[in-house]
Amino acid sequence: MLVTESRPRDLRWIHAGPLLYGDWGTSRLYVLGLAFLYTAHASIIYLAAIGLLMLAVSWAYTHICRCFPDGGGVYTAARQLSPTLSVIGSTLLLSGYIMTAAISSIEAFHYFHVPHQLVLPLALVSIVLIGGVNWLGAKSAGKFALIIALVALGVSAVMALLAIPAFMAGVQTISFDYFRENPPSDAWVNFTRICLALAGVEAVANMTGMMKKPVAREAKRTIWPVSIEVVALNLLFGLALAGLSFAADGTSLRDKHTPDEQGIAQSRQVVMELLPAEIASEFAGGASLVFTDDQLTTLPAKAAQAYHHHEEYVHSVEKYTNASMRIIAKETATDRFGSAFGAVFGNIAGITFGLLLLSATNTAIMAMVSVFFAMGQDKELPRALTKLNYSGVPWVGLIVSVIIPMLVIAVEQDVTVLASLYVLGVTGAITVTVLSSAYNKQLELSKPVRIGMWILGLFLFSITLTIGITQPISTMFSGALIALALGTRTIRSHAGPLDTGETLDTPSTGWMAILKDQKIEIDPAKPKIMLAARGRYQSEFAVDTAKRRDATLFAVFVRPIRVMDLRPGQAPRIETDKAAQEALGTTAILAKEHGVSFVPIYVTSQSIADEILDYTVTYGCDTLIVGKSRRSVFSRKLEGDVVSMISESLPEGITLIKRAADAPHTIMPVGMGTGNNK
């Protein structure tokens, strides 16, 4: 039996770079506003510090990508040391992906500037639609991500030019007062809170298995332009935000001297002091301060007035924390060309960055699917997570990956809270990757590089530890996921060894026995026919045609696999692929019964049409039999019609036969007809 695993390396840096930017670059869309919220005019100092950390992490990942050319990241790096550590690291990464999908979907509709009450339902619908598109295995989603990343780069470039005056004003606002007025511990904690700017760097390690060789060169060319752009524009737009005349609580951002986080806390405290004691007690401990209109009528006048002021303050701050880049685009364009142009350009930026955020949601969901698939393949999670649908997508993992972020945003939509949930998973996963690589003596790292990675890893560990202590909500979220993953792993290990397909019993139909005993005999003088369709009727027609022509019959079963990070050994195998066993086994039995030479082919790929054409031409087949598509028109339009793609690319001299799968055919002795062919 011929078994082939196809995994082309066709990803160049010029394509990988925009994909990385679409993941890594989106953090700017909420980090800038959060940095200003926490530290006001000291935010640029924080962004500069984060920029240095991002460059250091970029340097480390160039070496990590070189050491793991077949797919790296936290799961691979940690698994070489300890399976348990790999589960912890990948679960931290998983929590980061969950929060990426959640915060990106919410922020997308903030950038679209939809009414507040519509943000949640539209975010939920968008996640479902993204899941549906990926269910169909649409490769167009990847093309969309590439296009929107390039458009976002263009819009950012225009914004950078428009923001020069605001940038100059922002330079004049740089202040170190924050560090004099707050203890070092608070300054350090706020630094760790914006370390979610690192989110997305793991994506490049997951691309190495698809990169052209040499991977080290492609990885460097992918990482450095993106990291330099992200760091440079973070600083530029961070200063531009600080120099805007946009007002929050009646004070322009350029005139802010107290961080709005502290101002909001003080405003809340004023309300609490004016509330009756029995009502104030209900909001003790930081509970959300929310009153209905009916409840407001029962409050003292001063308390109600203070509450309205607090609400307006929070709302004005949310405008720049939820959509800082949109605000920068609108304000800078207005200052240069007037309010009409400012409104239009603000909408253009909002739509572009909103689509970029939805693209990041899509990337995060498929990254979750990949993590689930890898852990399922390694028996760390239930094997059901590796089940593929017709399009080659792990459908159970996809459903789980859609439901979890939906549950998160159904409970919480506040960007600052979602960011708090987010940051531990991001820094934790990167920390595990860097420290595992530094510790692993098997990796080819020079002494200076290994020392540098140790220093960076320990610094990242201190950040992660600080977040774990000071952000209990993030610790509880990530900790719960880790406990669930380790608990599932323990239960499964105690349940006994799993059947991985290595020692499968022969099915009652005998498919595997037939295939394993198949003798490959190819007579170069005989005609050759390729069957690329499933079903008994298709097999009967192909065998009958081969028998009448005294031809060798080939049958190819292409198992599509749409997983972002597919490492060696994780591709589906025919031993565990029931549909492939039945399809190829049926043809094998019929061919044996009628004395037809038969060659079964099993291949995994991201392109069904390319593989069918490749094997048809490679083996010199003069006839190709395919099935008429039974997929919906919408599905074919979205993913592409395999039969149409084959028809358009089939070389001259090869006859294409299209048959409906439900068209019966009876194999008859030669000279008694050709059967039914519809």
Short descriptors:
678 residues; mainly alpha; Amino acid/polyamine transporter I; Rossmann fold; 2 domains; 28 helices; 8 strands; 64% helix; disordered N terminus; disordered C terminus
Give an overview in words:
The protein has helices at residues 13-24, 28-39, 43-67, 74-79, 83-111, 116-135, 140-162, 164-173, 177-181, 184-193, 202-207, 215-242, 260-274, 277-280, 293-296, 301-322, 324-337, 339-377, 395-411, 415-439, 447-470, 472-494, 511-516, 536-549, 578-593, 608-618, 633-639, 642-649, and strands spanning 2-5, 247-248, 251-252, 528-532, 552-560, 598-605, 623-627, 655-659. Strand 5, helix 25 and strand 6 (598-605) form a beta-alpha-beta unit. The relative contact order is 0.14. It has 2 domains: 2-490, Amino acid/polyamine transporter I; 511-659, 3-Layer(aba) Sandwich (Rossmann fold). The chain is mainly α and 678 residues long. It contains 28 helices and 8 strands. The longest helix has 39 residues, at 339-377. The chain is 64% helix and 6% strand. Helix 5 (83-111) packs across helix 6 (116-135), helix 13 packs antiparallel against helix 16 and helix 18 packs across helix 19.
